[in-house]
Amino acid sequence: MKLLHQIENYKPFNEQEERDKELILQCLKSQKDIFTRENTVAHMTASSWVVNWERTKVLMAYHNIYDSWSWLGGHADGEEDLLSVALREVTEEIGIHEVKPVSEEIYSLEVLTVDGHVKRGKYVSSHLHLNITYLLEASEEECLRMKPDENSAVAWFGLAEAVESSSEPWFREHIYSKLNEKLGKMSS
User: DSSP readout, 3-27?
Assistant: First the structure.
């Protein structure tokens, strides 16, 4: 499996990524239905840190369930090519089509806790998202649109502003700040 090989070869950026890489690999090797929501304990997801061509802004959506500005992404839903999932989710969530990967390599990985919530009238128990993040680029000129069943706004933010816009402290401190830090190291 290509994804398993990519994760095994991924060089963790920090301790969070080291520990999360171990857990993701363990789950990939031992869990059934890891690419579908049939696995109600943990399943694979893909996220995108979508930046403009100059890499000075990030595209975010106001997520209805989490009541927060957040990155873009979603469930694998049986697809093992998580880069394709990340690209599909950007198109589905905000309507842009001119988006491309900066690299096909994994940009970041993380295990995310998801609290129990109601989605489309059905209760979803708390579970883990075994998440792979990709760095994508898009034009600020492309027309954005909301996906009302998932988000209520979409917008470009400056890098620091993107972190501050999130109302989820753990994401601000451990995910979005890390993604920006990695972006800064790429420019250096």
Answer: HHHHHHH---SSHHHHHHHHHHHHH
Name residue, tokens 């969070």: 16
Residue 188: its pLDDT value, please? 60
Residue 136, phi then psi, degrees to nearest 5: -120, 155
pTM beyond 0.85, yes or no: yes
Total Cβ atoms within 10 A of residue 26 = 12
pLDDT band at residue 65 under the 50/70/90 scheme? confident
CA dihedral (125, 109, 17, 49) positive or negative: negative
Q: How far apart are CA 108 and CA 21, in angstroms?
A: 10
CA dihedral of 142, 106, 41, 171, whole degrees rounded to 10? -60
**Amino acid identity for residue 79 in this structure:** E
**Tens digit of pLDDT for each residue in 138-160?**
999 998 998 998 889 999 999 99
Which residues lie below 8 Å from residue 43, measured CB to CB, with a gap of 6+? 33, 34, 35, 36, 37, 75, 76, 127, 128, 129, 130
Residue 168's identity, in one-letter code, is E
